[in-house]
């Protein structure tokens, strides 16, 4: 059905809302990336299979929802019973029948499936009461975990596309831009450029053609917020894009999705078709004379394509090489036309600002960093998952209150933000408020929102080596400072890891880093040395331990460590089974022996040993 | 090597015939054949009216494309940051030594290919290995048998 005016949308919302209310009880199965990797699809299939032959009053298979990422990936697969928010964790297929009988039919709770924060038997029933959720503020992720993936009816029932109706029926493009500018919304992709200003610049340029592109090339390793939104709430992105297009006067948009996210492409495509069918996208949107089409452009596995000018080259079917930006891409972007490029999270926030107003949005966060930011909290932290907090929340609150501290109560060592462009911040920076400006000042960067927590078993030199290696692979090779400079920095870092470096190398690395920063063409090179510089600044003694003492304090750098088997060995043969080079010998029940000459220090035995008898020195 | 090119016209029909469709066309070809056969590149250049050199440069620039046949099972080891600090390198090494190939290579019998990938966004389950389309995680070094057997 094509909606001809905003009024029809309002009527439709009422209808869908009533349809939603038919079932007082709902079962939500999280089908986000984390839960899918833990087998959520099987759980959902089992639910459908069991419900097929059952009759339960006030419940049917229609009240079963496969939702986007609910956030608490660590505890997945998750099953949530609404309206009370009963939160079942690590659900297995054999639990499904019991959940249907006990929770759905009888309204009772299954204690053993509830979340237990300390593993001591104390259990929490509702997810709202769990620390991981309690300290969050959700705007961009608000619908995630609540509605079925790409179901336009549920999205509309929750008030979806109302912001679009509002701008089409009662706002002028300049008013929209003013509202976004007033809200202080800054680009969530990393650099934090004011979204309103970008739109205003684009609108002012004389041109027949303007483009709106959504940047879904979430390349930072360790970040999956955009993936979750694209898969779980694609309509929010589409709505944000249509509003942006209406504001700047564009009739063609693209969503650039990275190759590694096939499900995001499928769900976005479905969402586009649904929206077109209802007249919320395409020709004469909501009966107005405004038309806007969206096409999906798939990336092909190049990190540099997250950079604006490279991304636009890639959309045009070319090699993704950035260009010097004397003229910004908002002026000359795709096909040399004015182009607004916004990140997934930025666009998903736009409809909320239009609905609730700039003043409401400004109250959240800090003065120069309004609103909220989504992060993927991962690494050696107890509660890993997807979170969204008000800007200005401290790292300590995020890692300890929401994240529950470090796994096994090990000491905190560093938190890495901003991916390969960011840096590692030590314990002394834990009270830093998380916003664009504070993180940059501390030598890291907000980036797109990956937050990787590291403990004392993580070697900071190795982390720097890792990121530089990543960037050497991903550098497009167009400009010399990035292509050759990062290569040399990587080689020097490898030298430190292998215990072959001198203190003079450290100076060399600092000097070269600065040259790469000054000389590189695009953000990849300009920020590439950040992981190195920040670790050298905050963890210098660790570099010196590698250089002076030929020692890796974290026990990671292979050339500087040896594995040994001590007398705690019970002779369980587990390490023998995993040793690829047959370096370990021994009989069952007898202490095993490790032949250092054959050992490749792969760490397999160390990882598999349950008796702490394989040790690193 | 000669390949059955009869599926190409169907792929070309899905897109407008110009440079902008190049990446999408190559992706579909790769999906069909698991790699980009030389003859298919020549045909793409002809149909889209793009120089062959440009087709070659695009197919070698992007990591997703392979100019060599890949195995029946593609084991993609995620080497994103989270997977890295949780031991992805050891898993990669174990797979490499079991199959006696390096990442980016295919076993001579065309059964297995090992690849690395920057980050697949399943960090909460790190370290992650994807076998064809299926995600495994958190993977332990000793899980290699399951991965090689897995669908």
Describe this protein with a few key phrases.
heterodimer, A: 617 residues, alpha/beta, Glutaredoxin, Rossmann fold, Ubiquitin-like (UB roll), 5 domains, 5-stranded mixed beta sheet, 4-stranded mixed beta sheet, 25 helices, 40% helix, 13% strand, globular, B: 151 residues, alpha+beta, 2 domains, 7 helices, 4 strands, elongated
Oligomer: heterodimer
- Sheet with most strands: strand arrangement of chain A: 10-9-13-11-12
Count of beta strands of chain B: 4
Number of domains of chain A: 5
Percent strand of chain B: 5-15%
Round the Cα radius of gyration of chain A to an integer and report it. 26 Å
What's a quick, concise take on this entry?
The complex is a heterodimer of chains A (617) and B (151). Chain A has 617 residues and is α/β, with parallel strands linked by helices.
Can you give a write-up of this model?
The complex is a heterodimer of chains A (617) and B (151). Chain A has five domains: 21-130, Glutaredoxin; 152-361, Rossmann fold; 372-458, Roll (Ubiquitin-like (UB roll)); 461-548, Up-down Bundle (de novo design (two linked rop proteins)), CATH 1.20.1440.230; 562-616, Alpha-Beta Plaits (2-Layer Sandwich), CATH 3.30.70.20. The N and C termini of chain A lie far apart (69 Å). In chain A, β15 (584-585) and β16 form a beta hairpin. By secondary structure, chain A is α/β, with parallel strands linked by helices. The radius of gyration of chain A is 26 Å and the shape is globular. The model of chain A has no long low-confidence stretch (mean pLDDT 93). Chain A has a five-stranded mixed sheet. A four-stranded mixed sheet of chain A has the order 2-1-3-4, with helices on one face. In chain A, α10 packs across α11 (234-248). Chain B has helices at 8-13, 22-33, 38-48, 52-61, 81-85, 88-99, 144-149; strands at residues 73-78, 112-117, 129-131, 134-136. In chain B, strands 2-1-3-4 form a four-stranded mixed sheet, covered by helices on one side. By secondary structure, chain B is α+β, with helices and mostly antiparallel strands. Chain B is built from seven helices and four strands. Chain B folds into two domains: 8-61; 73-149, 3-Layer(aba) Sandwich (Glutaredoxin), CATH 3.40.30.10. Chains A and B meet through α2, β9, β13, α18 and α24 of A and α2, α4, α5 and α6 of B.
């Amino acid at each position: 059905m094509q909606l001809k005016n905003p009024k029809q949308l309002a009527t439709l919302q009422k209808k869908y809302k009533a349809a939603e209310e038919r079932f007082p009880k709902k079962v939500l199965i999280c089908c986000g990336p984390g839960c899918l990797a833990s087998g959520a699809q099987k759980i959902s299939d089992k639910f459908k299979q069991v419900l097929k032959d059952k009759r339960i009053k006030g419940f049917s298979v229609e009240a079963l929802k496969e939702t986007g990422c609910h956030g608490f990936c660590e505890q997945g697969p998750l099953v949530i019973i609404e309206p009370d928010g009963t939160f079942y964790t690590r659900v297995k297929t054999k639990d499904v029948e019991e959940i249907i009988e006990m929770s759905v039919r009888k309204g009772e709770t299954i204690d053993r499936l509830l979340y237990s924060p300390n593993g001591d038997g104390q259990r929490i029933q509702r997810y709202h009461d769990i620390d991981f959720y309690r300290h969050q503020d959700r705007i961009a992720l608000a619908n995630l975990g609540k509605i079925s993936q790409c179901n336009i009816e549920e999205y509309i029932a929750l008030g979806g596309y109302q912001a679009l109706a509002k701008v089409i029926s009662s706002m002028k493009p300049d008013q929209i831009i003013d509202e976004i500018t007033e809200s202080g919304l800054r680009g969530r992709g990393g650099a934090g450029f004011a979204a309103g200003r970008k739109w205003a610049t684009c609108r002012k340029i004389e041109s027949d053609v303007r483009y709106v592109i959504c940047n879904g090339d979430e390349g930072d390793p360790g970040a999956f917020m955009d993936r979750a939104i694209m898969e779980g709430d694609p309509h929010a992105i589409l709505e944000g894009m249509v509003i942006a297009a209406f504001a700047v006067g564009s009739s063609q948009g693209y969503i650039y999705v990275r190759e590694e996210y096939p499900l995001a492409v499928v769900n976005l495509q479905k969402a586009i078709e649904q929206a077109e069918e209802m007249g919320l996208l395409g020709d004469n949107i909501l009966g107005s004379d405004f038309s806007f089409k969206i096409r999906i452009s798939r990336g092909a596995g190049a990190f540099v394509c997250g950079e604006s000018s490279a991304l636009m080259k890639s959309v045009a079917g070319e090699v993704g090489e950035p260009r010097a930006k004397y003229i910004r891409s908002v002026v000359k972007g795709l096909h040399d036309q004015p182009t607004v490029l916004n990140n997934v999270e930025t666009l998903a926030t736009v409809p909320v600002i239009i609905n609730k107003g700039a003043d409401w949005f400004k109250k959240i966060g800090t003065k120069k960093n309004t609103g909220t930011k989504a992060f993927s909290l991962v690494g050696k932290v107890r509660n890993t998952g997807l979170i969204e907090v008000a800007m200005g929340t401290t790292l300590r609150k995020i890692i300890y209150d929401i994240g529950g501290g470090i796994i096994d109560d090990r000491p905190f060592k560093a938190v890495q933000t901003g991916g390969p462009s960011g840096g590692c911040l030590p314990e002394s920076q834990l009270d830093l408020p998380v916003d664009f400006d504070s993180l940059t000042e501390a030598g890291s960067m907000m980036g797109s929102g990956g937050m990787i927590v590291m403990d004392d078993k993580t070697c900071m030199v190795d982390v720097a080596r890792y990121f530089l290696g990543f960037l050497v692979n991903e550098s497009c090779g167009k400009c010399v400072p990035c292509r050759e400079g990062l290569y040399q920095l990587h080689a020097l870092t490898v030298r430190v890891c292998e215990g072959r470096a001198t203190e003079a190398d450290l100076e060399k690395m600092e000097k070269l880093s600065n040259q790469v920063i000054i000389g590189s063409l695009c953000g990849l090179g300009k920020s590439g040395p950040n992981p190195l510089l920040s670790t050298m600044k905050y963890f210098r003694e660790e570099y010196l331990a590698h250089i002076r003492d030929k020692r890796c304090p974290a026990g990671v750098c292979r050339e500087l460590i040896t594995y040994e088997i001590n007398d705690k060995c019970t002779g369980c043969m587990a390490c023998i089974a995993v040793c690829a080079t047959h370096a370990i010998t021994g009989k069952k029940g007898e202490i095993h022996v490790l032949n250092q000459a054959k050992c490749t220090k792969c760490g397999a035995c160390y990882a598999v040993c349950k008796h702490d008898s394989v040790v690193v020195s | 090597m000669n390949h059955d090119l009869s599926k190409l016209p169907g792929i070309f029909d899905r897109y407008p015939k110009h440079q902008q469709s190049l990446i999408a066309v190559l992706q579909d070809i790769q999906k069909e054949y698991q790699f980009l056969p030389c003859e298919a590149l020549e045909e793409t250049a002809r149909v889209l009216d793009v120089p062959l050199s440009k087709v070659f440069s695009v197919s070698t620039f992007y990591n997703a494309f392979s100019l060599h046949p890949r195995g029946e099972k593609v084991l993609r080891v995620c080497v994103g940051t989270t997977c890295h600090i949780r031991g992805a390198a050891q898993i990669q090494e174990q797979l490499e030594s079991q199959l006696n190939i390096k990442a980016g290579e295919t076993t001579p019998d065309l059964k297995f290919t090992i690849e690395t990938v920057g980050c697949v966004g399943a960090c909460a389950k790190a370290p992650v290995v994807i076998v064809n389309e299926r995600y495994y995680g958190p993977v332990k070094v000793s899980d290699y048998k399951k991965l090689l057997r897995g669908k």
